[in-house]
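Would you be willing to look carefully at the protein I have copied below?

:::
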Amino acid sequence: MAGEEINEDYPVEIHEYLSTFENSIGAVDEMLKTMMSVSRNELLQKLDPLEQAKVDLVSAYTLNSMFWVYLATQGVNPKEHPVKQELERIRVYMNRVKEITDKKKAAKLDRGAASRFVKNALWEPKPKNASKVANKGKSKN
């Protein structure tokens, strides 16, 4: 950014922030071009329902976030606009999808293996008759 020309239409202090913002907008533009290169139906057909939900939620959240930024640039306080409730609603659904994903990743309990593990780990006293039988067998040999 050292080679960039600084515009005098805005304070010098915010030049770095504006440059970062411009780079971020460029990155968003590249991602949108990539997503728009494939039709939505083609994209969704390749995904399972949970992944489809993730794509839909991320798309909705991104659009609403961009609208939030637009409102801020127009001098409207987005915190007092219905877009805030919409973002919160989408965030709730994103958390639900995350919970479902986490449940799928969670380890399943194998009851048979757990039962064998506990049974073998517990100490069992030997019957009194078994020790006498073992001793008699040793004395005969």
